[in-house]
């Protein structure tokens, strides 16, 4: 049943990096009609490839019978079924992605449960599959509907351009395809779509952009506070002028040092259809009492604003300002912003027509494509340098150690800016800051993509399109060093992918410097990672002997601690005990 609700985004796939992973697994099933068998096989393949890793309490615990949210009976009723489930689960947990057979994973799904039940889908793992793909349906990347053939749209295929079997095809990974796909999706996204039960007609991203532009041009107020987002979340149409006036009047009356409770009262009034939305007023106590369970405080004030920023940052059209308290237009992308506003502000009523909506959402608008080889302007480079220096001066060493480890362990950050940067780009950003904090006179050139405030969107693009692809270049007198951080803790990835790439980056950097008659005479790299194995030390030594390229592996915690007492970039040219090459006894 459709009813008036605040705007919200699905949080099942909170990490945006998982979206192309899920779609690339779906590619194997494209064209197949989803019945119970295909649904379990698809969910099984997602788990088999470890794109989604359920806990032992769900996937590893045999359930003979369940009859609460839905009815379930285990497929295997034999005496040793519980032991078999546990054994297969442990083997899957220990082995590499794709090692365990699909039949074994499907066996687990038929004999365990997860407490999900969605309309039109069987309770358990089938419904879990629906929750994983339903927001991707809304964004037009795919059509995953029970009883219909699986479709991956043109834009969905753009999203997985660099992916296969759930993972990037190679280490030379270009994120511009993902970014283009996200922008195409959010530029068109409507709250009133066939997959969502809401009565309001809102083109969400164009509404946000228009409100920001209106406040800037009308009142010279660049950006909106994160605390203003509840007003947008509770708005019910595309009338950005009236909404902009509401936000302006609220801030003029109360300023920016207001409580969340006060904002909540005024935002709730926008949900009350019996009151005008062009008059600044709090909701009545009666309305709040009646609706506070339906329109939860934490959802409107914290959870949805966080998701809005996280999702809209994927488009690369939104900048973070004021230490993460404000969002604004990324002025590096004014052309794309103007195109979105001139093309996608008109709301379309699709009713229940899933197919028409999917076709509309899935078509690629070439004006919203990002170029992988786009050359940065000097302004963009300067913004990154300023951000790196500011952060180096602002935070202490323990902050960087904690946040770098959060990135590697894929733990969420509570920092108002870092929480909106995905882990890979976050680690590059923090590594650049640490080296600058250690050696303030260094020239640090970070190659990640960033907004007009120098805050990263995504990692360095890799060695393609005549780009060398180093993550961070560091210059000191005659030294050109390269910093290469990775969040991967897998031995095989560090040895087989990272180290050969770093070798190539150093070689190509040296060749280019020589060809350009630059004054640099010394080149080496710092490889910054966690869980560095002896194999990394062995391979680094082999590369030095074979290619003459010097790579110095540094554990993240050691790197941060050591950085507090260095005087030159050359001080990092050390082989730490954990990265010493292995030798035969007596050598």
What features would you describe in this structure?
- This protein is of the alpha+beta class.
- The protein is about 45% helix and about 10% strand.
- A hairpin with a 5-residue loop joins strand 11 (about 450) and strand 12 (about 455-460).
Alpha carbon gyration radius: 26 Å
Tell me the total number of β-strands: 16
Supply the number of helical segments: 21
Q: N-to-C terminal Cα separation, in Å?
A: 76 Å
Class per helix and strand makeup: alpha+beta
Query: Uncertain regions: pLDDT < 50 for 5+ in a row?
Result: none
Tell me the overall shape: globular
Secondary structure layout plus pairing:
Layout: H1 18-26, H2 36-48, E1 65-67, E2 71-73, H3 81-94, H4 102-109, H5 125-138, E3 142-143, E4 151-152, H6 154-159, E5 163-164, E6 167-168, H7 176-188, H8 204-219, E7 224-225, H9 229-233, H10 240-254, H11 260-269, H12 285-291, H13 297-313, E8 318-321, E9 326-329, H14 334-343, H15 354-362, H16 378-394, H17 397-408, H18 423-438, E10 443-446, E11 449-450, E12 456-458, E13 472-476, E14 479-485, H19 491-515, E15 522-529, H20 534-547, E16 551-555, H21 556-563
Parallel strand pairs: 14-15, 15-16
Antiparallel strand pairs: 1-2, 3-4, 5-6, 7-9, 8-9, 10-13, 11-12, 13-14
Helix pairs in contact: 2-4, 2-5, 3-4, 8-10, 16-18, 17-18, 17-21, 19-20
Quick structural overview:
This protein is of the alpha+beta class and 587 residues long. The protein has 21 helices and 16 strands.
What are the main properties of this structure?
10% strand, 21 helices, five-stranded mixed β-sheet, alpha+beta, 16 strands, 587 residues
């Amino acid at each position: 049943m459709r009813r008036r609700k605040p705007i919200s985004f699905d949080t099942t796939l909170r990490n945006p990096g998982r979206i192309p992973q899920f779609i690339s697994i779906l590619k194997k099933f494209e064209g197949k009609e989803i019945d119970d068998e295909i649904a379990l096989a698809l969910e099984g393949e997602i788990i088999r490839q470890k794109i989604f890793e359920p806990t032992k309490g769900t996937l590893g615990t045999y359930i003979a019978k369940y009859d609460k949210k839905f009815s379930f009976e285990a497929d295997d009723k034999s005496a040793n079924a519980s032991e078999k489930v546990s054994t297969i689960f442990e083997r899957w947990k220990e082995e590499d992605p794709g090692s365990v057979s699909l039949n074994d994973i499907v066996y687990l799904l038929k004999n365990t449960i997860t407490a999900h039940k969605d309309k039109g889908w069987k309770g358990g793992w089938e419904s879990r599959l629906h929750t994983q793909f339903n927001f991707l349906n809304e964004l037009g990347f795919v059509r995953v509907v029970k009883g219909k053939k699986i479709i991956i749209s043109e834009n969905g295929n753009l999203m997985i351009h660099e992916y296969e079997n759930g993972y990037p095809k190679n280490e030379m990974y270009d994120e511009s395809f993902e970014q283009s796909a996200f922008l195409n999706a959010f530029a068109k996204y409507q709250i009133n779509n066939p997959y969502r039960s809401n009565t309001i007609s809102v083109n969400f991203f164009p509404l946000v952009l228009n409100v920001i532009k209106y406040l800037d041009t009308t009142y010279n107020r660049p950006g909106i506070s994160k605390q203003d987002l509840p007003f947008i979340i509770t708005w019910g149409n595309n009338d950005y002028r009236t909404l902009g006036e509401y936000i302006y009047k609220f801030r003029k009356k109360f300023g920016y040092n207001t409580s969340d409770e006060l904002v909540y009262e005024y935002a709730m009034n926008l949900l009350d259809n019996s009151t005008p939305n062009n008059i600044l007023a709090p909701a009545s106590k009666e309305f709040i009492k009646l609706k506070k369970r339906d329109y939860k405080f934490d959802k409107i004030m914290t959870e949805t604003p966080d998701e809005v920023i996280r999702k809209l940052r994927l488009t690369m059209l939104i900048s973070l300002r004021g230490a993460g308290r404000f969002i604004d237009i990324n002025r590096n992308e004014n052309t794309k912003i103007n195109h979105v506003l001139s093309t996608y502000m008109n709301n379309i009523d699709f009713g229940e027509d899933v197919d028409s909506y999917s076709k509309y959402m899935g078509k690629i608008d070439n004006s919203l494509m990002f170029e992988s080889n786009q050359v940065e302007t000097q302004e963009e480079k300067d913004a990154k340098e300023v951000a790196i220096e500011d952060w180096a001066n602002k935070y202490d060493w323990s902050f960087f150690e904690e946040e770098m480890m959060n990135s590697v362990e894929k733990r969420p950050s509570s920092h108002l800016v870092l929480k909106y940067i995905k882990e890979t780009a976050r680690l590059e950003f923090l590594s650049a800051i640490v080296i600058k904090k250690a050696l303030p006179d260094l020239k640090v050139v970070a190659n990640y993509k960033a907004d007009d405030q120098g805050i990263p969107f995504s990692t360095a693009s890799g060695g393609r399109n005549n780009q060398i692809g180093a993550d961070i270049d560091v210059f000191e007198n005659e030294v050109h060093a390269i910093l290469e951080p990775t969040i991967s803790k897998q031995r095989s990835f560090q040895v087989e992918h990272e180290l050969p790439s770093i070798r190539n980056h150093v070689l190509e950097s040296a060749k280019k410097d020589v060809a350009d008659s630059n004054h640099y005479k010394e080149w080496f790299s710092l490889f910054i990672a966690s869980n560095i194995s002896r194999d990394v030390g062995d391979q680094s030594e082999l590369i030095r002997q074979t290619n003459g390229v010097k790579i110095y592996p540094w554990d993240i915690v050691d790197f941060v601690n050591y950085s507090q007492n260095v005087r030159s970039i050359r001080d990092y040219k050390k082989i730490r005990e954990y990265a010493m090459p292995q030798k035969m006894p007596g050598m």
